[in-house]
Amino acid sequence: MNLYGEQLKVSIFGESHGNGIGMVIDGLPPGLPVDETYIAKEMQRRAPGNSRLATPRKEPDQVEILSGVFRGFTTGAPLCGMIRNTNTKSKDYDPALPRPGHADLTAYWKYKGYADYRGGGHFSGRLTAALVFAGALCKSLLAQNRIVIGAQIQQIGSVKGARFDHPTEELLTQLTSDPFPTLDEAARNRMEQEILSAREAGDSVGGVIECCGLNLPAGLGSPFFGSVESRLSSMMFSIPAVKGVEFGDGFGLAAMRGSAANDAIVKAQPRCATRTNHNGGINGGITNAMPLIFRVAVKPTPSISLPQDTVNLETGKPASLSIHGRHDPCIVPRAVSVVEAGFAVCLADLLLCQWPDGVRKDL
Prior knowledge:
- There is one protein chain.
- The chain is of the alpha+beta class.
- It is about 25% helix and about 20% strand.
- It contains eight helices and 17 strands.
- The strands form six sheets. The chain has a five-stranded antiparallel beta sheet.
- The chain is globular.
């Protein structure tokens, strides 16, 4: 079943080369302003064809809101947004030759050969456009509650940049308007060159996206299965190509002693403050009001033009495959808005679990 959320429930639908894709969102409070200009701006951040670092394929990614909005505000009823697919080349895909690194083979097993294989079908990163739409709506709810989120490209291939140290609202807002958002201007050119070099070689490259949330209330989340880490990781791993998630210093904590890893508490009321933030704003699965910081590892785009080994599903014999078509040499720049969107949906759900009317009471 394709469903996420507790108080705010979202379900994604469609296939990459079908009539369209979309999202149904149930649980948004009534009266939330729906700014279609802002939604269109968010959609363009993810849309293809806007950068020399991305696929040249053009998709307008215009959202048609089918229900749940009246006179510019949410009604409280299920909200459905649909995005028509307008630029597809299905002839580039052969169902007999599963592409290495893609879900072609697992989809074949799971759905007994009936899955729509064109463009990856329901497994395609194309469907993240619907998540960006949902995220735009949820960002409006967060903004009403003074919560600000943003993300940056922290690594491309072997080129690493700076991490969030003392993030501010102004910085996060500034990053959302940058087509290649990174804190490390010195590393920007080397990151871009890493992408262009991979493209020239017929290959691809991955990277790391770092995300931050500010002004979160303390107390969101629950222990164990309802922890913020559990719920946010579940959302992040639903994004195609995400293969790792870490919070705060993440795996770096394994090399620390407790005396270094513990965040000394310097203030408890009215808002918690710690001297450091090695744990990324979460303790015991619950937000502590410090900046919530996490990173996701994005694998290299599996669609590459270099020859790869596969097996012909019709003959059972080994085969060689070179993928042609219009593909990103690196999806990280376009994935930044997707990670932000997933973060926004998760935070909106956590907020509504605490305050069902969508208005925080701790300010």
